[in-house]
Structure to design on (1304 residues):
């Protein structure tokens, strides 16, 4: 009985034999297998009660209805709503991926912060809301004390007419600064064209679904133009139950999705859309295909007339006949003359033809004369206020708030006028010209701008010629960002007052872009704010109150919600509308007979309560065909010849000849032509000898618009010949590439006089020879690993010229060259 | 009426109208969001990135200005035959772990992640590249907060397993559960549709039971414009496409010269 | 040689004892120590007397002909057919609505009222019967449509006066109720184990073999 080797082995053998009649090895084997199925680092989403809440998406001005699926307090999915008239179904891919913009701490500011590192380093320190508010209040109060409130500038990207935008402008006015500027968009160009030709301030409303021939001048119908949910749904209808009833013709220089999927693609030289529109108008006139009754009874400036000073004026018809014969237009646009004639004939013979404009998505402004030319084309076929045409509406009856009462300091500040010159003699029709700020700040030694407030905007990324804004921001003493996101502009800010993101935020969605009937959506929060952020509207009201008498008096509301509700007073008291949509009959079908709408609410409170559930007020009614008293122009008619342009020129000609004034406005046409839609050859910076290609930035529906970052999900839908690792691709026609000796996938430097960016070459037969196409929406230098340094941002090398007359940036005509690296 | 090889009760299938499809990608995003698909830092590496609903871009190859592009959204085809006449899918026959099966009740090809051993035979066997291997763990870094939007209806995957489109099988379960609550055993046509079907803003996708003649999908699948991808492999996919454009139809298979029969 | 034989004899004598000692040692290790070591033990945040709450005389609303119906009073099926599982505080507060006035006389209830009801704080219950994330288990399909008693899977949990400690497998994280309580793996009652084979066994027995398809229970 001693423990020797032999006995020890027996002990072990006994042990091994014994263990096999215990559960240990078997259970352990099983459990180990299970263990490999449950790695602790693989997330297990918590279960709970499912619920859905409906609201309205605010990621673009389209404002689709969305439904958010929740598990207890967590939001887990965004889906489209069927009880919202804008998009009877799915939203766009950006809205679909929206939760990644809510639940990503690396791209959001989770609390107020102030800058501690150098500008742009992204080195911030946490502060409390009290500290943050006091820092800004102190700065603003200081400006007023120094008697230079006008040194406060705002750059606002909130949707036009939204309550948040109104409050920011109001804060500036109450302070004494007129320097409220907005990020320019197609809406601005539409607004100006509407004022000049129709005398109407309402939004441009396209009766798409009732049209039977849609002629789109570069509008990216499938790239996110207007309200994407609406347009894509209409597209499905045109290719489905209404197959063959509606024809779509796309004028575009590239085989975009819209061009490819349209019934016909008319390939034009980039930037010559206006010439084509006028060429078509010429054919309508010469073939006598235009609506003579409309032109005779409701239009001005078409036929020759004698003006009050006894001069004979030639008019629009003469201009068309003189300059836009198909043979001439063919040379300008590259479209064969026969095709121009055929297209014009088809367009005119359609029952309800509709011409569209707004470049790409319409995130950026278009060309004013081009927009006027397209509007004129619609007018020639009698398409103004006709079913399936361009509808003329008044603004939404949202209460505009009482006029600002400026105290002594504010009045003095306001008298100094606008820095950017919008509304002045040189830019009589512009409301704001953010693109003029950089030169104003950079040219003087002491900047006229002290503090910039940036709301819902990322100018350092989204504006063409973004380098200039970066230089401007380096010089401005104090920058405040309300951005909820760690975007490029916020990285330059001194103070961050983070806003909620959509889904956490109460917002009004004023008239989705391009919609043909009045609609205002209410985007309600569907989740408690995840972080210590604050509604920008509340912050603005709080600031105003903190600035004391004079300013505070203009802000009688406790919070944003109160201000918002006050604006709906106008809706409650205005023309009757509806607060719910059952999804059965689309509004555009019933609009014609909708004159007898009975409001489904009784009072403001009732309306407000109903909007909390449906998130919507709309009025699916329109008096089609009414033209008498419709146009608020000086002549009371649709003006092919804008008397307002004429008047502005006359007023100015006292300080120099009309020609000089026109030159200052950037208009190359002279005389009467400047008052009418016409084509202006793009004046681009680079010398064609050195920069042989035209850079055409293009937009994609599967990348977010404007200042909103793209949800990472979207990168699953980007092809590897659009983005490969850190490189985006410049699309070239194989012929062009062959001339430059470039092959597929090769790395090149895209150089313009303004700078250079790196890209790879993608050969695409659908790219116009002589043009280089780069996508917008990539190339962030901020955010997280999903977005940062992914591709290039063409805005960095765009050298924006000034769009004639409007003064807004002309970003579509930069010349570039490619250098192999 | 041509009877499918599967005589089970339901044969869920899909019809995608390529004339309606605008290539916007909403279906792919909806799919990823619905199914807890991981997003990696570099999604441009298409060999490694995961997209159950993958969109392929095609062009007609004609020179400017006659160029045209179109798109093929490609979910899992849920094949009913392996190409040799057997009632199973090409991926199912090769699975050594019984981790993927052709469900006889629904016609859906299942994929059980906890069962998968990651050998990738199925990936090699799939003619449609519809299967994806998880080279890494799902990317939900701690403290970033991305895991807050995960839905409990679909199990997140670990590295080393294969995943693919399930026709949003959990939505079938959701619909059944709701039906049970309402004392029904059968579900209606629109009660169970996939996330991509629901999301498509152009309503290009139709989903339903191919065995049910009342369902739109079974009518559409018999349209003269309907075709399937790589049809001659005889895998009997349950995803059909519609297109009136011959150049699109021609790209759905590898045709010898003069072999393709145009519509017109 | 002699010597060697002798020594061999020496060691053989009683050598079997070593074998038996090893054998018995392993048995103790495998049957006693291993199960204790494999499972953690965690008390529930507070006690809950199921037996008391299942008594219709004591609790208003706990009615019904079957035990299952009584269970469902608190462990509810939601309107969309999903199962709510362990009730939220909200459900408890349908009766225990006033933190100041207990309905019974137990110290546990007082504790519950002050710690949870007064603070409106959810009770961090530990769930004995949670299936892993890869499993989709619709209670409604079994309880309502399949007429399966709660007892079939959960045993006499509803008769307990005291909540047992929650025990989780240290390796897999699964509750001991999924499989492990009867460490032999033998199954005498339907509720002894809740593994895939157990589900399949029941489906087969009830003639629902089609429900053994992978995607019926997996997600």
């Amino acid at each position: 009985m001693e423990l020797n080797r032999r006995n020890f082995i027996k002990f072990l053998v006994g042990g091994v034999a014994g263990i096999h009649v215990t559960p240990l090895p078997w259970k352990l084997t099983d459990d180990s297998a299970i263990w490999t199925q449950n790695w602790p680092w693989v997330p297990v989403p918590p279960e709970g009660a499912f619920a859905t809440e409906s609201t309205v998406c605010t990621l673009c001005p389209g404002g689709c209805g969305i439904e958010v699926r929740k598990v207890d307090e967590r939001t887990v999915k965004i889906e489209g709503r069927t009880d919202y008239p804008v998009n009877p179904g799915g939203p766009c891919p950006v809205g679909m991926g929206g939760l990644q913009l809510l639940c990503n701490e690396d791209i959001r500011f989770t609390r107020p912060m102030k800058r501690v590192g150098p500008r742009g380093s992204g080195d911030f320190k946490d502060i409390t809301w009290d500290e943050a508010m006091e820092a800004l209040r102190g700065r603003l109060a200081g400006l007023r004390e120094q008697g230079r409130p006008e040194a406060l500038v705002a750059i606002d990207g909130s949707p036009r007419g939204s309550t948040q935008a109104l409050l920011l402008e109001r804060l500036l006015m109450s302070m004494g600064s007129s320097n409220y500027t907005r990020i320019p968009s197609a809406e601005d160009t539409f607004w100006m064209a509407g004022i000049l030709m129709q005398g109407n301030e309402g939004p441009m409303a396209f009766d798409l679904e009732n049209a039977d021939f849609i002629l789109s001048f570069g509008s990216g119908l499938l790239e996110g133009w207007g309200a994407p949910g609406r347009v894509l749904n209409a597209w499905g209808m045109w290719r489905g139950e209404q197959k063959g009833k509606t024809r779509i013709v796309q004028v575009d220089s590239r085989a975009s999705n819209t061009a490819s999927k349209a019934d016909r693609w008319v390939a034009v030289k980039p930037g010559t859309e206006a010439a084509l529109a006028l060429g078509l108008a010429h054919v309508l006139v010469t073939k006598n295909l235009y609506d003579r009754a409309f032109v005779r009874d409701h239009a001005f400036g078409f036929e020759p007339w004698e003006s009050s000073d006894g001069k004979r004026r030639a008019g629009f018809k003469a201009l068309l006949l003189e300059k836009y014969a198909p043979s001439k237009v063919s040379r300008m646009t590259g479209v064969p003359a026969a095709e121009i004639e055929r297209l014009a004939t088809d367009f005119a013979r359609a029952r309800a033809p509709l011409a569209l404009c707004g470049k790409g998505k319409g995130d950026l402004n278009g060309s004013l004369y081009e927009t006027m030319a397209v509007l004129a084309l619609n007018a020639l076929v009698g398409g103004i206020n006709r079913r399936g045409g361009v509808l003329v509406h008044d603004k939404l009856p949202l209460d505009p708030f009482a006029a600002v009462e400026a105290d002594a300091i504010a009045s003095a500040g306001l008298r100094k006028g606008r820095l950017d010159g919008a509304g002045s003699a040189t830019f009589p029709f512009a409301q704001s010209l953010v693109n003029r700020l950089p030169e104003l700040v950079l040219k003087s030694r002491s900047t006229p701008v002290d503090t910039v407030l940036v709301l819902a905007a990322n100018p350092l990324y989204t504006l063409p010629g973004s380098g200039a804004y970066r230089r401007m921001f380096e010089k401005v003493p104090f920058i405040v960002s309300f951005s909820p996101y760690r975007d490029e502009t916020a990285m330059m800010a001194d103070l961050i007052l983070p806003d909620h993101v959509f889904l956490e935020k109460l917002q009004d969605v004023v008239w989705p872009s391009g919609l043909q009937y009045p609609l205002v959506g209410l985007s309600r929060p569907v989740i408690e704010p995840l972080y210590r952020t604050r509604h920008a509207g509340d912050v603005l009201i709080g600031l105003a109150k903190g600035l004391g008498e004079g300013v505070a008096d203009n802000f009688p509301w406790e919070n944003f919600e109160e201000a918002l509700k006050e604006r709906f007073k106008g809706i409650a008291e205005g023309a009757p509308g509806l607060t719910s949509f059952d999804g059965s009959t689309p509004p555009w079908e019933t609009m014609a007979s909708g004159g007898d709408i009975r409001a489904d609410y009784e009072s403001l409170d009732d309306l407000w309560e109903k909007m909390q559930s449906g998130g919507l007020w709309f009025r699916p009614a329109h008096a089609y065909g009414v033209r008498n008293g419709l146009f608020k122009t000086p002549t009371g008619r649709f003006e092919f010849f804008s008397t307002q342009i004429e008047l502005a020129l006359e007023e100015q000609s006292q300080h120099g000849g009309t020609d000089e004034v026109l030159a200052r406005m950037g208009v190359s046409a002279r005389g009467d032509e400047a008052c009418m839609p016409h084509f202006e050859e793009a004046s681009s910076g680079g010398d064609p000898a050195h920069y042989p290609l035209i850079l055409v930035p293009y937009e994609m529906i599967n990348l977010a618009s404007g200042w909103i970052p793209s949800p990472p999900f979207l990168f699953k839908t980007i092809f590897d010949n659009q983005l490969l690792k850190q490189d985006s691709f410049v699309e070239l026609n194989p012929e062009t590439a062959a001339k430059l000796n470039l092959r597929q996938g090769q790395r090149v430097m895209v150089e313009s006089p303004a700078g250079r960016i790196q890209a790879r070459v993608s050969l695409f037969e659908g790219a116009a020879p002589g043009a280089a196409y780069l996508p917008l929406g990539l190339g962030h230098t901020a955010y997280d690993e999903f977005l940062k340094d992914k591709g290039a941002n063409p805005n960095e090398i765009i050298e924006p010229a000034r769009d004639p007359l409007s003064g807004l940036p002309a970003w579509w005509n930069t010349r570039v060259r490619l250098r192999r690296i | 009426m041509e009877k499918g090889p599967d005589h089970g009760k339901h044969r869920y299938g899909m019809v995608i109208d390529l004339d309606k499809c605008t290539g916007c990608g909403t279906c792919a995003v909806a799919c990823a969001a619905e199914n807890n698909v991981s997003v990696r830092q570099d999604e441009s590496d298409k060999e490694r990135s995961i997209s159950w609903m993958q969109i392929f871009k095609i062009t007609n190859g004609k020179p400017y200005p006659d160029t045209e592009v179109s798109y093929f959204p490609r979910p899992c085809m849920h094949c009913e035959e392996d190409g040799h006449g057997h009632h199973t899918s090409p991926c199912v026959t090769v699975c050594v772990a019984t981790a993927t099966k052709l469900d006889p009740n629904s016609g859906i090809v299942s994929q059980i992640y906890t069962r998968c051993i990651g050998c990738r035979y199925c990936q090699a066997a799939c003619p449609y590249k519809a299967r994806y291997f998880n080279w890494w763990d799902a990317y939900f870094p701690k403290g970033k907060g991305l895991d807050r939007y995960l839905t409990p209806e679909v199990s997140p995957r670990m590295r080393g397993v294969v995943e693919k489109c399930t026709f949003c099988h959990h939505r079938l379960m959701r619909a059944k559960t709701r039906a049970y609550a309402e004392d029904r055993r059968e579900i209606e046509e629109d009660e169970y549709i996939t996330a991509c079907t629901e999301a498509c803003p152009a309503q290009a996708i139709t989903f339903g039971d191919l065995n049910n003649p009342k369902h739109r999908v079974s009518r559409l699948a018999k349209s003269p414009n309907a075709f399937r991808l790589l049809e001659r492999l005889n895998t009997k996919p349950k995803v059909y496409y519609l297109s009136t454009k011959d150049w699109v139809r021609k790209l759905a298979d590898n045709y010898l010269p003069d072999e393709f029969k145009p519509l017109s | 040689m002699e010597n060697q034989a002798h020594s061999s004899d020496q060691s053989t004598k009683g050598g079997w004892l070593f074998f038996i000692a090893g054998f018995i040692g392993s048995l103790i290790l495998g049957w006693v120590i291993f199960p204790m070591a494999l499972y953690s033990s965690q008390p529930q945040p507070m006690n809950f007397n199921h037996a008391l709450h299942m008594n219709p005389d004591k609790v208003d609303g706990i009615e019904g002909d079957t035990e299952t119906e009584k269970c469902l009073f608190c462990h509810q099926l939601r309107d969309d057919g999903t199962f709510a599982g362990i009730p939220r505080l909200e459900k408890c507060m349908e009766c225990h609505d006033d933190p100041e006035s207990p309905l019974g006389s137990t110290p546990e209830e007082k504790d519950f009222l002050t710690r949870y009801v007064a603070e409106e704080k959810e009770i961090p219950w530990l769930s004995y019967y949670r299936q892993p994330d890869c499993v989709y288990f619709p209670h409604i399909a079994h309880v309502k449509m399949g007429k399966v008693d709660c007892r079939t899977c959960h045993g006499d949990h509803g008769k307990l006066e005291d909540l047992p400690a929650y025990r989780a497998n240290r390796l897999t994280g699964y509750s001991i109720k999924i499989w492990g309580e009867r460490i032999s793996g033998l199954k005498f009652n339907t509720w002894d184990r809740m593994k895939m084979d157990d589900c399949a066994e029941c489906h087969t027995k009830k003639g629902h073999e089609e429900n053994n398809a992978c995607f019926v229970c997996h997600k």
Q: What stands out?
A: Residues 1-7 of chain B have pLDDT under 50 and may be disordered.
